[in-house]
Every structure is written in structure tokens, then in C-alpha cells.
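Table S7 (text form). Paired inputs.
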Amino acid sequence: MYQKRKRFFAITAICSMLLSNVCAYAAELDMNLYYDGKTHHYKAEEVNIVINGEEMIVTDMPPVILEDRTLVPARDVFETMGAEVAWNAQTKEVYVKKESDVVILKIDDEIGTKNGIAFTMDVPAKIINDRTVIPVRVVSEALGCEVGWDAKKRIVTIEQKQQEIENTVEDEIVDVDINENIDISLDANTDVNNNTNTNNNTNTNNNTNTNNNTNTNNNTNTNNNTNTNDNTNTNDNTNNNTNTNNNTNTNNNTNTNNNTNTNNNTNTNNNTNTNTENNATNVPTQNSKVTNVIVPASASAPQIFTITTSAQIAKYQNVYVDDTRIVLDIYYAEKNLPSDNITVTTSPFVSAIRSAQHDMEGVTVTRVVLDLKAPIKYQLTQSEDKKNLIVSFQESVVQSLTKTSNGTIDTIQITGSAPLTANVSTLSSPNRVIIDIPYATSNLEPNPSVEGLSQILAIRTSMYEEKVARVVLEIKDTAEYDMSQNGNHIIVTVKKSTLENISYDASKKALVLKKVMPFDVNGVIHTDNYLKNQYKVTLPSDFTSVYGYGTMKLPYEGVSSVTVANEGGRTTFSFSESNIRAYTITEDSNNYYINIKNPKEVYSKVVLLDAGHGGNDPGTSGNGMNEKDITLSIVNKAYALLQNTDKVKVYLTRNDDSRPENRHRANTANDIADVLISIHMNSASPNPSPNGTEVLFVTHTNDVQGRLTSQIVATTLLQRTVNALSTNNRGLKYDTQHQKNLILLNSTTVPAVIVETLFLSNPGDALKISNTANHDKMAQAIYDSIIELADKYTWR
């Protein structure tokens, strides 16, 4: 321990000397950063990166700080550390691989993965000025590095951890070949003896000798206080002691000693040691752990699954159960995996990985199961160091494409040499179905004939990427398609739609209705049921004879499809949403257009009101009340008031006892809103004394002087809440670690605040908020604050 501390202080001293050579005062960056579809002016002191004591040379894209997190050019930093960095343009993912660890980050997604296990980031990877930048701390720490931050000098230090050098004795390992049954036994550090050794000697030693060798004795020794050994003993110790033996020992051994151990102990041995083999090798020590399962980086990457252990695998067995799974039992090994169930999204062949530990006649066995999507051949091998089991799959070959039609329904069957997985997307103008088959090569002709088909106008095939086969079906504008997968087959059906005179224009982001029968666009009814993921446009009368009925898939991010139906004598268009969208209707001489837009394209000021907690998350409680109920009451009342003004457009995160994830609330704010206001109640239980109102926020790096900021919103809400409820003003709470740890504050890029209205744990505050009249007062305070902010400040 003392030596380790000396080493640590030495490293620290070296790093300090190296850092002292880095510029003491950082230069200022004044540049434009283009990301998230906008140009942002960035003015801040530059950040220096020091890797293992050496300053990184900055290229065209310097490190930047966004939302208090340092983003760095992926290749510049991590290739310097010896990692491999790769970019997948199709999925917009960056892969960072270092030794056996693979970190995958998707652009603008706060969820990353390490070896298939998900983790959350405060700030996602981004493309800034056409360069991929990623959060330096979370990725470095995921790769086992230590990260430091010198705020004064604005220096990020990254130190790759060095393995402690221990004076351990290496074990001589017996190699065993893998046989066809894949049942391997390997006993390390085990004495296998077919003889009886009886020792009646007294050994007096001034040191302790540790022998970690393999002794294989095939002799029968008959001893009358005489030990005759015709073996070769390999000892990794040098003994500087005096052995006093009262017996006669005849040893014909060869001793090879590599280490020197100096000990001041006395060992006196008067024992009889008897080792006898019982038709098998002795049981190994159960000190191994199954630590990880590494999955492929993507569906088009080599399909290799690696099961890692902390020590050499003494024995494993491939257990056949059925063709839907691969079952591996690893003996003498404890299960130490991050998760018992891993959903695999990066493989055409494996859907999930499950694991469990059980005892088999005193032997600990870890079972790892790979669930297959369909029966498939695979190869199972053991790594050279015997610490890994490797399951690998060969890539599929797309062998044939067959076509049939009954006049109204066309069917395409794509067949491969192994199970196929398809990623399907659509494009318009012309209407196309894109089928990408990962980890596959194509033997198909480039332009198969469409003779005899009624809905498919053309078929094209190609290799989209080196390991991705692509099939494109060009179909009629109103045709509908369905796709299914069955083992080695992908089946696509394209049928004539009951929809007519309808198409989608991707350039306009609009559903186009031919003007066959005119109607007054001012008579169209809009129903926005965004909390149920639906927006409905109702025409003034029944247009079934013009537009028909049915569902049409849409190639629009956030809106998956539109369903045309007749409801109460009126034709309706119901849009299925995953993101909140706004819709307008325009027309020209030939067409009507239902335009799909982000709310910020339609409204000048957008507020997202959030009632904290909900559903199975009651929030805090006190004096017989739950936070989730009070916040919902207040927010619904404020929302009702705000429906009477056209100064702002207001959306809610919930209007009932449901529980949206906080990440979803933050992402929704970033997507569609200018301001996020989240209403909460406070608690200091069991201390009943704290009382009053406080408002939390975090300063954003993209705050612009003269425009609305979190601080302005917080200040306005705090003052109006205190005045409305006559509560104790506890002030603004901001930019401490507590606030920075809150997802609603650390994951938003728009002004965002959390109003802690009062304390449910305080009897006076609780009594006040138990009166629903005060809910009305608080709702009015929220309304008044928003109107004041709309009148006095520029929001964008």
C-alpha cells in the first residue's frame, strides 16, 4: 500500500510539472458553430486537452463546452489514446473501440452504449462544423481512463490507467486442444499424482516458500522414511534458507527457480501428504468470473459475440437445447455480468442474451444463452489466452428474389443463405420502399423484371454498403405495403390502396390532396390530441368518394402514418405522431396541402408546462398530500387560463395521472418549445421547519444577451409566486451540482426552470396548498409570469 501511494504521488508530481508547461492563460475562441440546424456564436476561452501528460495538438475543430460539458473531436482525442474511431453515416453513430471495449454514441442521442450496455449522458454527441464531437469525460471514463478538469486553466487531463505491477508468480498452464464435443477440461495449478509421498521430515526455514507450479508425478514410491521422486518440479522461488532434515531424502528432481523471496518466518513441517488421482484431474479452484458479453457494434459489423472471463476458462460445454438458442455452460465461474438480460439490437441473428448461475454437484456454473431469431450455423472457439469464448456467424448471401401477383396484391420474397433482417424506410417522389439487409451480400440481378406485377413499378438491387444489401421497390403513389420476416425469408406485400388522389410531397413536408371536389379550408376542424400521439384534421363534409379510406405510411420524422376515415359524415385525416407537430392547410389551383410542421414554425412563442412526477411516481409527500396531485391541479388550471391568449402557444407534458420520463420531457422541450416551466413541491422531511418558495435553474452556454434566459424566467416566476401565495422567498438556486444533476435542467437547451412552490413537510405551507383557492392563485401567477415574459423579452 505504501509503495502504491509513493507511485501515485510520483505520477501526480510528474503530471503537475507537465501541466505547468501548458499555457497558464487560455486564448479566447470567437467563432461560429453550426449544429442542430442553426449557426451559434461561440465566444469562450479555449480548452486544452492533455493526454497522459502530453498536450493534444488542436486541428480545425477545437474542444468546446456546451451545457457545462466538454465536447472534443472524436478522432483527434481517442486515436491519440490508441483507440479506433469509426463513423457509421447511415445510423449517425460513432464507434470508439479500445482493446475489448466498444463505446457507441448516436448523434443527438443522450443514450450511449458500452459493450451493448446502455448509459446516459448529459450532452449527446454532435456534428459541429461538419466534425463529430463527443463528450470527453463520459467516453474516457467508459474506456477506463481517469479524467480531471482544471477550471482555472481550462485544461482537461486524461490519464490511461496503468496496471499495478505485482510480484506475482506466473502459473505454468497445461494446454488442452478443443475437441469436437467442445467439452474442455483444463486444470491450472493442480498437482496430479499417481503415487503416495510420505514425508516425516522437519524443515526449519528462515523464509516462506510459495510454489505455484504444476507437478506431474507418475511413479509409485514406497518409502520407509525415504522419499524417492523421479519427477521434474518447476519452482518459481529461490529459497535462501537452511533445511534441517532428520530423515533420508533421495531427490532426483530438477528445480528451476526464478524469483527470490525473503521471509523471516520459521516453517516446521511434520506432515504426511497423500495425493491420489480418482480417474480424473483434481477440481480447479473456483476463482473465475464471467464478466462481460461483447456484442457487434452494428447489424452490418462482423457478427462476433465474445464472452469474457477474469481468468482462464477451466471447462465449458455447448449444451444443445433446440435450434432457437445457443447455450454455453462455463464451469468453475461465477456470474459477474452487468445484466442478466441484454436485448441485442445490432445483430440479424441474435435477439437477446440471457445468463444465470447454478450449482452442479458443488461446481459453480454460469450459463450464457444467445437467443436466435432463426436456426443458423455458427462457430464456437476459445481465445488463445483461454479467457474468452467466441461465437461467430458467417454473413448471409441474398440468393433469390421471387415475384407473384393476383392482380391487386404483389408479393416479393427475398431469400438468403441464413436468416435475414431488414431495415425498411420509404421515400417519396417517386414512392419507394427501401429494404436494407445488414451483414449480407447480394447475388441478385440489378434490375429484376416487374412483368405481371400490378402495384410495383420497378425493382432495383445493389450493395448499399460493403455489408448491406439493398432492394428498392418503386410502387404506385397510393399503394400500401407490409413486410414480414420468417427465418431466411423477407416477404413484402404491396396492395392497391383504397386511398385515391392523395400523395406525400417530401420537399414540402405536406400531404397533397388533389382538388377534385373543392371545399372551404376555413371550415376544416383541427383536433390536437398530442398527449395521445394523434392529430386529426376533419374536412367540412364526406369526401370518401374522392379520397377513399385507409392508412398511408409517411416518410416524415415524428409522424409515421395518416389514416383516412369517415366519422359522422365527415372525412378525417388522423396523423400518428411520435413527436408533437403542428398542421396547417393551404391550397393552390390544383391541390390542398396539409402541411406538417414543428410548432416553432407555426407559433412565435411556445411554452411547455410540466406537472412534476405522476403515475407511479408520487413525488414528495407530507401532511396527507402527494406532490403529483397538487402539481397536476395547478398546471391544468394554468393551462386553461393560457387558452384565452394568442400571445403564446402552450403544450403540457401530462394532463392526467401519467408519468412521462424526465428525459422525454426535456427532449420535448428542446424539440418544440421556447421555454420549459416545471412545477414541483418541496420537502425537508423529517424537519418541519423549512418553508417557502425557491426556483431552480442552470445557466446555459447558449444564453444570448437580450433574449429570454432561464434566469429571467426564474426571477419572474419566483417574484409572482411569492406575491400570490405570500410565501417565504428562499431565492434562486442555480448552477450548483444539485441543479446540474437534474435532467430537466442539464438536458435542456432552451430556458428551463423548476418552481419548488412550497414545502409539504412544513405544516403552514401544507395548510396553505391544501386550499384549492391557492391552486388558482398559483395558476394565475404562472399565467401572469408567462404573459409578462412574452411582452417584455425576445424569445428567439
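Next pair, protein 2 of 2.
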Amino acid sequence: RCQTAATFERKVERLAAKAASFAELVFADGPVELPLEHGERVNTRGWWHDRGLRNDDEAVSEVLRRAWSEHGPFDGLLGFSEGASAALFYCHLVAAHANSTPAASADGSAGPDFSGLSFAVMAGAPAPAGSALASPVFELPSLHFASAADTVVSLSDSKKCALAFRAAEFCQHDGGHCPPQRAEDVRHLVNFLEAQRDKILPASSVSEFGMAVAGEETEDPRICPDQRDELEALGAMLAPEELYRAAPAWPVRLAVRLRRGEGVSAALRFTLPPAYPQAAPCFCELESDDLALQAHERELLDAMEVAREPLGFPRVMAMVQAAQQWIDEHEADLAARAAGRGDKAAPEDGEDGEEEAEAWWLREEAEVEDALVAEAEAKAAELMPDGADKRGQWARQCGAGGYGKPWEFVVGLVGKPSAGKSTLFNAATRPESSDREATMAPHPFTTIDPNVGAGWFAAPCPSAQLGCQDSCQPEHGRAHGGRRRLPLLVKDVAGLVPGAYLGRGRGNAFLNDLCDADSLVHVVDASGRSDREGVDHGSAGSGSPKTTDPLDEVGWVRREIHLWMFCNVRAKWGSVRKKAKMANAHGSREAVADRLFGLFTGYRASRQLAQAVFEAAGFSLQHSAEEVVAWGEYELHLFVACFLRARFPIVVALNKADTPEAAGHVARVKSVLGDSCIPVSARSEWWLYEQQRKGHLSYVEGAGAESVTLSPEAPENVREQWEQLRKKVLEPYGSTGVMEVLSVAVSRRGPIFMCPVSDFSTLEGLVTSCPSAPAGRSASAKLATMLMLRPMSTVEEAFGALKHEQMLRGDLVRAEALVSDTTDRGSPQVQVLRRDDVLRSHGVEPHAHVLRILTNKKAK
């Protein structure tokens, strides 16, 4: 519940990777759309409004039947939390189908054939609706994961669910309410799936080879035309004794013989999913009792991967031919190994022995050399210093799919527990009621689920340069000091602790929540009063062994994120090296680049960004295959460190700057980090907001003491607190730092700001024709509207953003920009732009473009 098929897919991505060679996972959304909460942009889903009442059973049944009809048949089920209840409901449908004639669907056609379901896997499963079942009712083999630390579904309830299956296997872990995450739990699940696979598709034998499918006189009508054509072609190209079709005929499963010398040594087993070949790849496994070939299985499979055709084309024959070619080319090595001379036939550099023994990429997650991490991060900071992406090239490659519409910027707040993230979140988002506030408390994990809300940052306003700051009427707030408010999304997630990448605290759940962030703000306790676990020891504890140096805190949080990425990539490094070795042998370097850079796309980045970082880190794209084979642990650390700096620019918020202990720490940290850290007092900003809401004062958000005006009716205690805040925060630092740190986080990605106007003489802003637009917006308001675009956006993409917001319609005819002449105090000049001109900032400071775009139609 409270997730989508996409979020569930991310939670089990480790399982999907481990089982990719033999299993296809299909994810389904529940029928119940849940209301938006905490500023969410996408509605999450559920299966029932109230599982106990079962009022949604018909809708659930329809979703499950449609999934089976469109993507099935399925061999097994995987359900988590309320999804496990849906899986149990699925089992009921299968059992009901087995005891009755197929039901008709709503349009009168025959319902789906549920035959073939062979097993079920459930994690965090609630007890069956009603009460625990008295006796097992399902014959399916099943595997159940549950945790005593689960605060959502109790361990006893999950055990009651397991009782519904006669052949239930129960696995207990300590990870709380989550699908299998630990390496041993994932291995347990993969082993279970492999065992079920072997039952469904037993190992083929020589006597079984032949194209005919036992018991099938006609081809199954559910086989798509592309698959039917490929089967016909395989039957024509291969001899009957070389090809075997397994029963049942749907989905298509087949095996193709491979030969070594004069004897049959192996077979390739293929499964063709329903969406193959247009939208899904085929799955392939090597089956062999030849020990020499088994020893080289990975090399053989990698050779086949290089030969895979793209989606939309038949793949089986190309992969079979690549496998047979590899066997023929390595016959001498295989014969030597079979004769007991494996060491002599091994590669000259002895890499196979290293892989099986002490290869660095086979180490456990906890086995990391801190010295290499520190060295790599120092080198990455030298190669890619903070703010180096002035032109926004990296940012463009991160969000390649977001062009042609306004940038909905997301800032992620990270930091150890009790660093003040929830206070900063509230100060930045200004919730209007207490139920919208993030919990604030000086103890670990006050935030359990991510808080997401609309916050504000300071964007450059062109009104000062155009001499109309007093008459400018921004959509949000007012123009002040050449800046104006603009909204963004702020995401506050539960704090991390040392070892989070190993699963401590909320571990990978915390880290996965960051993937949709464009920049990160690392909230640091500048007082140094709390330890690494987030326990505040108070002013008396400052300087004690239990407290931390804020500068050290900056380092270990970055290290946790680094090791999260590093361990994810290292776990797959063996396959990258095999790709590189095969590329060296066959001259196909695109395969290794595709595999290596593809490992980084899960962090919402493009392969183009990974490639740019690869070259920025000093590696050669032309010689990537040779370099990757020779890489050690340090080189991968360096690549990850550089990628982290490009993908997640980090700005440090030195929070609690109003505490007595903070002054010395702030000066020392700034001397090391420079503009990458901002003194912040979130508590002061929150106090100012609350007092303004009560009518005790007025002030301009993000401005200094001069913008604060006390009300004559303000109580004496408010006046005293204001004086303390002015002396401790606003005078030494210029502001509370809340808006400033968000503004710096945005500027690190080099955005483009655009004020669209209908006329340069009046500077009237364009307005949207969307009926859901905010009320009160006037068509005559000067410079009313501002949009933020991704870096290096073109005029064409700016026009697309205006169409996306329904401010313009039709086709682009002409685009003009109002350019201020900085060398002459005369009036601004109008510059005609081409549709492929790139909008850039002028100078070091952010700049807002004033554009007038003419089309062949007007917005209604």
C-alpha cells in the first residue's frame, strides 16, 4: 500500500538483477488511487480501501485478470505488504478456476486461463482477511519473508498467512517492513526461484529433442506472430535433433543443442516472454554436464550477450551462433581443461584464479579500504570542483527527458538524525497547519517516511536591471534586492547513520529516497553537540568523545552515499570485466560501454552523463575495454566519486548556527569548504515565520535584519527574542540562511530563468489558460511569470515549456529577447533569437531572460 508498481520495482531491483538470466518480473498497480500526501506529485496506489470489508474485490479481480491476459501466463507470484494480500487473492482465483469452467469477461469473451501458476512468494504479508485459516488450502509451494521488527505487519500475522499454504517455507529477517534486501535473503529467494524453474522446465535430454510439443496438435493461438515466425525459421534452419520445444506450448520454451567436437556437450534453454521480441528480451541459460564448459560459462554467456539483436528483432539464432562460435574458437582451452591441464590453459594473466579467490570485486559489502575512498574523493574534488558545471552540461545529461517543460526542481535534505532537517524542512516549506509539519525532536529518526513539500528559493529578477523593481508584480511574493521567490520541491528523509550503506538505520531505504533529487543539502549540526547516531548531548557534552566535529560529519555522510553507489556497482563488476574481455577479443567496444554506463542509469542519470564523467575522470573512451579490464578498486572509487559530484551536487547547511558552540566551527568549516557551505539557523527562520503568522512582525524571507518590522502590539518576550536573534544570526550572517542554502543548491545545477512577456514596452507577463491556474493572477501584471528551465535549454525548448503551461498555442514564428546594455545606461536592446539558440546566463551570477515569443495562434 502507498506505493506504485514503479516504486515496488525499485525495491526489488537487486532480486531482478540476480534473477535476470531466467526470470522476468511483471509489476501491477493496485486499483485504488490514494490521495496525495505531503506534497506528493504522483498518486500512490493500494489494492483495497478497507481490506477487512472487501468492497473492492471485484476491482482487484479485474486488475489481476487483466494482468494475466495481457502479460501472462505467470509461473509464480511475488507480493509485498498489501500486495501479498493481492497475491493471496490471486491464489483464490487460480483455485476457483481449477474447480470451474472459465468465466467470461465483461465484454463477453472468455476469461483468462489461470493454468500454470506454480508457486508464490510473499513478504510482510498480513493475515488472511477474517481470521487465521484452520488448515492449508493451497497446494502451491510458497516462500514467506517476515520480520519481528516490522511495525506495520506483525510477525504472527505473516505466519498466519503462511499457514494457508501446505508447502510453506518461512524466512525471518531483521529488516523491518520491506521485501528481501540483505544479500543472504536475496540469495535465498533466488535459489527458491531457480528450484521452481527447474520443476517447470526440467533439464532437457538427448532423447527429448525434436520440434513437436507433446500433446499439442496445433500451435497455441496466444503465441504472437513474431514468435511464430521465429519458431518457423528455427525449424527450417536447425535439424530436428537440434531443437526441442517444451510443453505446455505457452509461453514458448525451447532448447537448442550446442556441439563440441563429435559429441553433444550442452544445450541453451530459452524462454520467450509474451512481450518478446518487441518489448522484452528472451531469457537464456546454459545447460551442460561438461565440466570444462561449465568452468567457462560466464565467458560463453557474455559472448552471446554481445551478439544479442536489439528489441524488435529475433534473437535466438544469433545467440546460438555466437555460442557455437565461441566453443569452436576455444576448443583448445576446453580440451586442455578437460584433460586436467586447466592451469596451463588459463589466461596468461591468471585472472580466472583471481576471480575465484581474492578478486576485489568479489568482496563483501563491509570490505572497503577507507584510504582508497579518501584518495579517490580528493582526486575527484580536484578534477571536478564544486560549481565546475558552469555551462550546465552535466545537469542537461541528468535530465535529458525533462526538456521542453518547466523544471520541477527537487532538493533532498540529507544528514544524520537530529541535525535539524525537519526544522529546516518546515522553515523552507512553511506549512499552514500543524498536520503538514515534519516532526521536530532532538532524537534519532524523527522522520520515518519522506516529507515532501513545496519550498522557496531566491531566483534572479530582471526588474532591477530594467529599472522597474518597485512596479514589478511577481506571481510569488515581491521583488527585493534583485531577487524574487520561486517554488521548488523539498524532500526531507530519515537520517542516516554510519554503516547506512550496509543497512544500518534505514540504510538503503534512505539512500533510495534520494534518487529523484536534483541537488542535495547536507544538514550538519554546526554546534557539534550530537554524536554520529544523532543523540544530542547538550551544551555540556560539546567537546566530549561522544560529540562530533562538523567537518568530520561532512566527510562521513558523503562517504555513505559514495559507498552505496560503489557497492551496487562492485557487485556487478564481474560482468563488466567479462564484457570488456569479450570486447577486446571481438572488437565490440560498444558492449562494455553500454554495460558500464548502464549501471549508473538507476540513479536518474543518462548514459551520456556517465560517459562524460568517465572522460572527465581521466579515462579514455576509445580504450575503455582495455582500461576496465585493468581497473583496480581505486579506479572504480574514482569513477563513482566523480559521478557523485556530477549527479548530486552537495551544499552543506551548517545548521544551529545560533548556538554558542557554532561560531568557531562555522569559521573553520567555511575556511575549508568555501562557498559550498552556508551558515543556517532553521530554528530562527521558523520562529520568524510563526511570529509573522501571529501578526507580531513582518519581514522579507531570505533578507536581513533591515527587512524585519516589529508590530507595536508585539509582546515583550517577542521583542526580547527578536533582539537575541538579530545579534546571534542576522547581524553576523546576514540572514537565517534557509532560503540561501536552497538557492545555492539550485544554482549548482545552472538553471535558466525566463520571464515570458506579451509586450516589451509594458512587460506584461504571459498567463496560463489552464483553468487550474492559481487565482489572482493578472494579465497586466508586470513581469508576473517566471519559469525555470534546465541548463542549456534552447529557444525551441523554452517555447515548448510555455506550450506545456498553456501560455502559448500554435507554432513558433519569432522569438525576441530584451537585453540590458551593461556598458551604456541607455534603454535595453531587442535581440532576435533563432529557435536553436541556447539560452545562457551572462556572467557569474544567475540571470533571467525576458523573452517575447510570437506564434501563429494566441492562447485562449
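The domain at 751-857 is CATH 3.10.20 (Ubiquitin-like (UB roll)).
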